[in-house]
Design goal:
Number of helices of chain A: 25
Order of helices and strands of chain C: HHHHHHHHHHHHH
Structural class of chain A: mainly alpha
Structural class of chain C: mainly alpha
Distance between the termini of chain C: 50 Å
Order of helices and strands of chain A: HHHHEEHHHHHHHHHHHHHHHHHHHHH
Oligomer: heterotrimer
Largest sheet of chain A: 2 strands, antiparallel
Strand content of chain A: under 5%
Distance between the termini of chain A: 55 Å
Chains: A mainly alpha (638), B alpha/beta (147), C mainly alpha (323)
Helix content of chain C: over 70%
């Protein structure tokens, strides 16, 4: 009984959460021939992972405990951590929650989404391997283990990118991802090795204790290597073209994981190394690095997205753009900034997941994601349209959805930082963030016009609404988008503020593992003081009253009094006005919809077009150049 | 009260949509001239609408060629009720100098009920405004009959 | 009991002042004044000032045609959503000392709330399926992008100026801005705010989509763009929304730069606000309309991102150094 109680203690839950995913993966590989067994196993493991992580909310996020777990009870000997450790603080758990949630919803979606593909057994094996890898990475307390998990997730992601290898470009995308992803992994390994050589430990807590006291050339190089390595995982500039290729080729349920979870693991890695290992976030230079790359990703990727004409590639670029918001906010190094960044990370997982699932639904039913070939699907897929619009409004930051709540905090944080530090550069960040937001809206207006509204091409006449399971998965995300948007106080209070507090509480992180954290340099956090006022619930209430008033007035005036007679609607009167001509199909193309904008920026767009050559050698070169620049930066300035 | 208000307003805010059914452009220019400072039909609420969906009065100029006939009819059908159809110039009424040509399908009244004819080649702006004002009155009557 | 009275009071705010009734009357009057003034400036007699009311009621009495290609629900519902969202914004904008609902939204929120009517007209147009609406949508969106950058800079400049004076660093609250101006005089009297006010004046016609920035609704080339397929009551609601948007933006200008002029009596303040809005409309919409020809969409973008942005940026830099 005592033994049972012992193994059910929440101390073990982190490793269980990782294990169930890997276990599910292996079991499916063995027993996955049977369709029902496979689906049950997959759903069971993702549900169990979600359950284990959710059970940790109480002790870790609410009570502020840090769970330290030595595998096989191999505790440190002689002051050095030898064993493999898991360390779960609020930050880890925060990311683990995101992971398990996205994995769960994407799992539910996969069941019906993948039913037309072959090799589902391999799909679920790799899928759970990918999820387990990310989960392991965010819960790990050990730098080398993080690397192992990064390798697992990278290879699983590469294989899944090429999963539909009959589709055009899938293998090519996977190859690109493989090349640059491996360069990133190698960077992480090299950085880890250099740190190990310096400090003789791989434990994160002990590294956090030892590294800051001894910053020399080797550790600076290690920092650059780790930063670039995790940067490739987050697909931040200059690694964004990979994301576009990978998302374009991978199944939608995998895109959800890559965008909502895998990129977050990169962000998690960057937060860990900058705030914990190097503890130098008080440094203006480090802030500059993060904020600069963040803002660059934000703007470059949103403009790249405007030029796309493939639904999923467009979403992929937006994904990186939103990651840019997260990175920028985290790089501000204020409590408000980190909290806002993490808030945006949640929201990004939710709305981007929703959008990818909607794209997947469109692909599932129509067989294409080319914006120029779609149109008018709102009449055929009304539920998907509504769900997509919720996602689109969320990502473009329209109130009352969640994107606004977090972007609003990011603007506040960056502007407050600008005012407090007197640095006009941060002001530019606020402006870039606001402009990026409206460009995001533009590009989703484009998608909604090209895919869901406009005219229905005749070859899509027989399209039907997707099955309930896929709508359910989208519905979960949509509901969460609305909830996190309507109750920002709850999200910040229960999720992001504890996580942000953990980020600024390095000594506690070190001491939880039994090391001396008293010497830890802690960045000045500031307080969670919100400058602006935004009360979404009351606003929505007022809007509803207003809307009700208009609707009643409209109904009283016989507003909706129009012909519903199907036969009559074929008459000339109900045809579109074409300057007198008979109605014909003339859907506006998606790629160059905002030419008024692009015309003025043609130099920039042409340059970008030339740069994104699609040749893997170029992208590998970018990675090398990026590494060289970051290394130079950290050697000279840090 | 609203009913009266709407009827009143219907007369005071007639929006025009102009269809050129093969006109020589003379009437078209004259139609625009009624919006100039000298004649200013906007004081009566007239406005040129960009789309037939917004229009109350359809102004047809030109002898209604065979090419343009289906387009004219389609566009007129797309104007919401109550609507008035005004022919402007002699062409849509009789064919004018084009009468008897192989390419003429007019007069327009063969195909749709025309409410007001403004004759002339081209009509004087005063005549046009007079005709349009008459059409506006008829709009009100039509609106009254409908309800 | 107090709950009921509060509820009734809020209902009154939403329905009467500064909600629907005020928006309807004032917005339509502004629109009428604008049309009359443009006519006068062109030496015409012009329509009666009440012309927008006639147009509105006439459209209400017309038949509503929903094209077969359109997505009916979105097509019919979009105008209502746009109007409701605009009226709600009006509730947040202080009428000098009086704010119907404060503490719920501040200027950056207003910036985003202003997108909702624009998005609703875009979605409505897109739902109609017309290719003219497609072109209109593209232009409307580019116009929004154009106005956004200078508007952001203007708002940040105001936030910084007021925040500096109040010792909080930055102040996003509209009420805070109103109170600051009540105590220290209107912001327009400050040197640093002059370029911002000028920029804001130039933004107003762009945001409302008036001449010469009405490429999105160019009736002579793309058949009124997004509105091409709208007829009857939904069109009436869109026309009303356009009128209310003029009111909203001019009163936003009044709240940002001309605060502190109020008399303390709500009725007089409302009248004063209307007069100010009318003057601003005459200045920014009618006058500009009468003397310019329509710009192409790329010219609109270029204009806003160079001239107007520069003005706003100058203001922001001046505010930054505390002038």
């Amino acid at each position: 009984m005592n033994y049972l109680g012992n193994i059910l203690s929440y101390q073990h839950f982190p490793i269980y959460a990782i294990m169930v995913l890997f276990l599910g993966s292996f079991l499916i590989a063995v027993f996955g021939e049977n369709r029902i067994a496979r689906n049950i196993l997959a759903l069971l493991s993702v549900t169990a992972a979600l359950g284990f992580v959710a059970a940790l909310i109480k002790p870790v996020l609410m009570d502020g405990e840090i769970i330290s777990y030595w595998m096989g009870a191999r505790e440190p000997a002689g002051g050095y951590a030898i064993g493999i450790a898991l360390e779960v603080d609020a930050l880890s758990l925060f990311f683990a929650l995101l992971v398990s949630l996205a994995v769960f919803v994407s799992g539910v979606y996969s069941i019906q989404y993948m039913n037309r593909d072959h090799n589902e057994k391999e799909y679920y094996t790799l899928y759970l391997l990918l999820c387990g890898g990310v989960m392991g990475m965010v819960l790990s307390g050990d730098l080398f283990n993080m690397f192992i998990m990064v390798e697992i997730l990278t290879f699983a992601a590469v294989a899944l990118t090429a999963f539909r290898n009959t589709a055009r470009g899938a293998v090519e995308a996977a190859f690109k991802y493989l090349v640059v992803g491996c360069m990133g992994s190698t960077c992480i390994l090299a950085g880890t090795a250099m740190l190990y050589a310096q400090t003789h430990t791989l434990n994160l807590a002990q590294l956090a204790q030892l590294v800051p006291g001894d910053v020399n050339t080797a550790t600076k190089v290690a920092f650059a290597l780790l930063f670039v390595g995790f940067g490739t995982k987050a697909f931040i500039v200059p690694f964004h073209p990979l994301a576009a290729d990978a998302h374009g080729a991978a199944p939608a349920s995998i895109s959800v994981i890559i965008s909502g979870v895998l990129t977050k693991s990169g962000i998690y890695g960057i937060i860990r190394i900058t705030y914990f290992l190097f503890q130098s976030m008080g440094l203006g230079t480090m802030q500059f690095l993060l904020v600069f790359i963040g803002s660059l990703s934000m703007f470059v990727c949103v403009t790249m997205a405007l030029a796309q004409h493939d639904f999923k590639r467009l979403l992929a670029f937006h994904s990186i753009s939103q990651i840019g918001y997260v990175l920028t906010a985290v790089g501000l190094c204020t409590a408000l900034g980190v909290s806002a960044g993490l808030y945006h990370a949640i929201n990004h997982t939710l709305f981007k997941g929703l959008l990818f699932l909607a794209a997947g639904a469109v692909l599932h039913e129509t067989g294409t994601t080319d914006l120029n070939k779609l149109g008018g699907l709102a009449k055929k897929m009304p539920h998907t349209t509504v769900l997509f619009l919720i996602g689109a409004f969320s990502i473009s930051g329209l109130p009352p959805f969640n994107g606004f709540a977090s972007k609003w905090l990011i603007y506040q944080a960056s502007y407050q930082k600008a005012v407090e530090s007197g640095n006009i550069g941060f002001l530019l960040v606020t402006v870039i963030a606001l402009v990026t937001s409206v460009l995001t809206l533009a590009s989703f207006v484009k998608v909604s016009h090209s895919v869901f509204f406009g005219q229905l091409p005749p070859e899509l006449e027989n399209v039907r609404e997707v099955s309930w399971g896929m709508r359910l998965a989208m519905g979960i995300f949509a509901l969460l988008c609305l909830v996190t948007g309507l109750f920002p106080g709850l999200v910040t209070g229960y999720l992001t503020e504890p996580a942000a507090t953990a980020v600024f509480n390095v000594s506690q992180y070190i001491e939880a593992m039994g090391f001396d954290g008293s010497a830890a340099v802690q960045p000045e956090a500031g307080s969670f003081q919100y400058v602006g006022a935004w009360d979404p619930v009351s606003w929505l209430l007022v809007l509803c009253i207003a809307l009700l008033a208009v609707t009643i007035a409209a109904a009283a005036g016989k507003y909706g009094n129009f012909s519903r007679n199907r036969a009559a609607r074929r008459e000339d009167k109900y045809q579109l006005f074409y300057g007198g001509e008979a109605q014909e199909l003339s859907q506006l193309g998606g790629d160059d919809l905002f030419w008024g904008f692009k015309h003025n920026w043609r130099g920039y767009f042409n340059y970008m077009h030339r740069m994104h050559s699609g040749i893997v050698n170029d992208y590998a070169l970018w990675a090398v150049i990026d590494l060289a620049l970051v290394m130079l930066f950290s050697l000279i300035v840090l | 009260m609203f009913k009266r208000l709407i009827e009143e307003s219907t007369e005071k805010s007639p929006w025009l949509f102009h269809i050129n059914a093969g006109s020589c452009n003379g009437c078209d220019i004259e139609l625009v001239s009624i919006l100039t400072p000298r004649y200013d039909a906007e004081r009566l609420g007239f406005k040129l609408a960009g789309s037939p969906r917004h229009a109350d009065i359809v102004v047809v100029t030109g002898p209604v060629t065979k090419q343009s006939l289906p387009r004219v009819l389609r566009t007129i059908a797309q104007v919401p009720e109550p609507r008035c159809i005004v022919t402007m110039g002699s062409c849509p009424q009789s064919g004018n100098v084009f009468r008897g040509s192989y390419s003429i399908a007019g007069p327009l009244s063969k195909y749709v009920p025309v409410d007001v004819d403004v004759a002339g080649c081209a009509p004087k702006p005063e005549a046009i405004i007079d005709g349009l004002a008459l059409a506006a009155k008829m709009l009100r009557e039509k609106r009254g009959q409908k309800k | 009991m107090t709950v009921v009275i509060d509820a009734l009071m809020y209902l009154g705010y939403v329905l009467i002042f500064p909600g629907f009734l005020f928006c309807f009357l004032a917005g339509m009057l502004l629109c009428g004044i604008d049309r009359k003034l443009v006519a006068k400036m062109q030496k015409r007699v012009g329509p009666p000032v009440l012309q927008p009311f006639y147009d509105f009621f006439k459209l209400c009495g017309k038949e509503t045609i929903v094209p077969d290609a359109a997505e009916g629900i979105c097509f019919m519902f979009a105008p209502l959503l746009g109007l409701a969202a605009l009226v709600v914004i009006q509730l947040f904008i202080p009428v000098f000392g009086f704010t119907a609902i404060s503490g719920m939204a501040d200027i950056v929120v207003i910036l985003y709330l202003l997108l909702i009517p624009a998005v609703s007209i875009i979605l409505g147009g897109a739902a109609s399926g017309s290719p003219y609406a497609g072109v209109g949508l593209s232009r409307e969106m580019v116009t929004i992008i154009s106005c956004e950058l200078p508007l952001v800079l203007v708002l940040l400049a105001v936030a910084k100026t007021v925040g500096d004076a109040m010792g909080t660093g930055l102040c996003f609250s509209l009420r805070g801005i109103a109170e600051y101006q009540a105590a220290n005089g209107s912001l327009i009297c400050r040197i640093s705010m002059l370029p911002a006010a000028a920029a804001m004046l130039l933004i107003i016609p762009g945001e409302t989509g008036n001449h010469p920035f009405d490429a999105a609704e160019a009736e002579t080339e793309i058949c009124e763009g997004l509105l091409a397929e709208y007829s009857g009551a939904p069109l009436a609601v869109f026309k009303l929304s356009h009128a209310v948007k003029m009111l909203t933006l001019t009163s936003l200008f009044a709240a940002l730069f001309l605060g502190g002029l109020g008399t303390g009596m709500v009725v007089l303040d409302a009248l004063l606000l209307f007069v100010i809005c009318a003057v601003l409309t005459a200045l920014t919409i009618s006058f500009v309309h009468a003397v310019t020809a329509r710009l192409k969409i790329e010219q609109i973008f270029k204009y806003y991102w160079t001239v107007v942005t520069l003005l706003a940026a100058v203001s922001l830099v001046l505010a930054w150094y505390g002038l």
